[in-house]
Amino acid sequence: MRQEYTWISRCLVKQSDINGITHRYTIQIACNANDDVDLHRRLRDLAANQDFVIEAIEYSRLIQDHLDKLDYYDHESIQLASQSAQHGYALGQLTATNDTSSGINHDHPSLLNIDEYPVTHKKDPTKPSWQQPWIDPAVKKVIFDHSLNAQLKTYLLIDATSRNAITSTFDLGEYDDLPIQSLYSGALAQELKQQAPYLLDVTLNAQQLSNNEDVPRFHRDFFSKHWGQHTGIFFHSSEPMDKLARHLKKFIKIRNNEGQWFYFRFFDPRTMNHYLQSIQRWPQRIAKWYGAQQGTELIKAILCEDQSGSLLKRYQLIPDHTLNHGGQIELTETEFQFFQDYRWQHNKQLIETELKNDFPLETQQMSHQQFSLWCDEGKHKGYTTPRALYDYCYSALMAQTHNFDLSEIEHYLSEQTTSHLEKSKLLYQSTKDAVERYTSGSTR
């Protein structure tokens, strides 16, 4: 019988929870084996018995070789090796990795077909205003043309709060030629009439598709005033409006796994784009959103404009007869992390845009990565609000443009007992004063 040795291995493993989310961990494992081939076989068998999968083995060393490489006392490895000598193996603690960059279950196949359509709405100079196209022809075809499926309807879910900011008043009551239904019920529907989300049946018939003069006024108003303003998202469904409304109501208020309730503004296309991209490989969540059950789905596709309105994105469910929705949805910590990442990326983009608008010459040759780096630096230094981050990035931009040392100003500010917002204002003003001195040639 060949002699067995005790080995220490550090492994990257993955494991799926009851919600179907794949989580990744690192774990230290002590295991008895004859050689490294025997060790790897035993590690795979051990992982299978523990309901996780080994994705990679960072290292495997004999326990003494492992300890010799370290310049500290590795109590955990010694304890695991002792347990392994008695029982054949020992498992350390699972330590979660924080890789959320590629979405939930990023190594699983996507359950959605995601198509993008450029929006290039151009006027025809040969036609009068009343004959001008009210929508980009390609976008009209994607959203409204159901000639291949006569049962399919187009619905629009509107955020009344965002819409009212553009119209300055609640105007949905003016369009009495369209079926409209609030997603709030009872007294709440009346109390929050001007803030509620509303579902509208905006399906167009063949005559309306072919003749611009027959298009309802609402459609013209929406695509001329509200497209690109993040006021709603579209759905394709063969089901009646009341059934779709009941389905969408389930997502307005969602609790987390600790029982806290949150309002989910999924009818903002910016939020929905990010969310669908994140969950496209998560069977349980996709099945719930699309109402997939026994080979059918309540929602065929969800369509959202992008940040600028220059792109239409269609998220269409790939036919999968194994998807079945059930139970209530609870927002997981992974999803909250995605929303936080989205908000952070959104804030960075806003700051970059504002700086480019305010200082076009200074930012002309500046890369997107540079703005992102400044934002990350500012956040690390405690400038967490958009206003404070703008002030920090402005200061970094001016220091680089005019070649002065920003650390001197920061050292002065570190001695001030003020809030971060007040400190950012001081940073902005101090930088502005420094720019004036340097550009005037003064060294005072």
From TrEMBL:
Residues 155-280 form the DUF4123 domain. It comes from the Bacteria. InterPro entries: DUF4123. This is DUF4123 domain-containing protein. It comes from Kangiella marina.
